[in-house]
Amino acid sequence: MPTDNQIAAPIQVKRSSVTKLVITGAPNLDPITVFLEDLASCKGKITVSCWGKSWTAYWGGMWDGLNIGQFFCELNTSYIIGYFDQAMKSRQFSGEELANKAQRIVLKERRLFCYGHDEARELFNEAEELRDSPSIDHLHGAHGELMTKLFGCEWWHLADDATEPNPDYAHLERIILTVQKALAQHQQRLEAA
To answer: What is the CA 43 to chain-centroid distance, rounded?
Structure first.
């Protein structure tokens, strides 16, 4: 049952103008849809969609005199990606890199005579199993003992640099660069008309 506040407050509806652009023909990218909305002076919103995924950003303090499309073109891709998806990083955990790092440590320790030949061979082979690790969290249960032996008690700090480029980040970066290029072309056409 509605409360008195819900009944007393009338619903407000405002109309705004939105520009929709569809970008096609970009190499190795599906069609990209861009919605641009200039809300007020120095305030704007952009929504970018590609292959079933969408990213939205709002800026309430754009540089004076720029519309949302012009402002978006002035920003660097890493800043935009941070706005679109704060959790996305340019690099991600790699079991492959971790296994390589672990095996290098075993070889180094063997050369320093910290491990005997048989122990080094066994650790080297165990380190090979790290290649299939999907995340650092997985390592705690599956390979915690090995990781402690190789990297010490706080091994997760030393495993942080076992990374590879994040393909999702690179994909979003290509989308943003394509949108910026298309917005610049669109702006040039508007100015020429």
So the answer is: 25
List C-alpha distances in Å: 46 to 121, 124, 130, 140, 181. Answer: 56, 51, 41, 41, 15
Q: Tell me the pTM.
A: 0.79
Q: Closest Cα partner for 72 from 156, 149, 178, 158?
A: 178
Segment 73-109, tens digit of pLDDT: 999 999 999 999 999 999 999 989 989 998 998 888 8
Place of tokens 């652009």: 21
Give Cα 107 distance to the centre of its chain. Answer: 34
Residue ranges covered by each domain of the chain: 16-90+168-192, 93-165
Dist CA 45 CA 13 (whole Å):
18
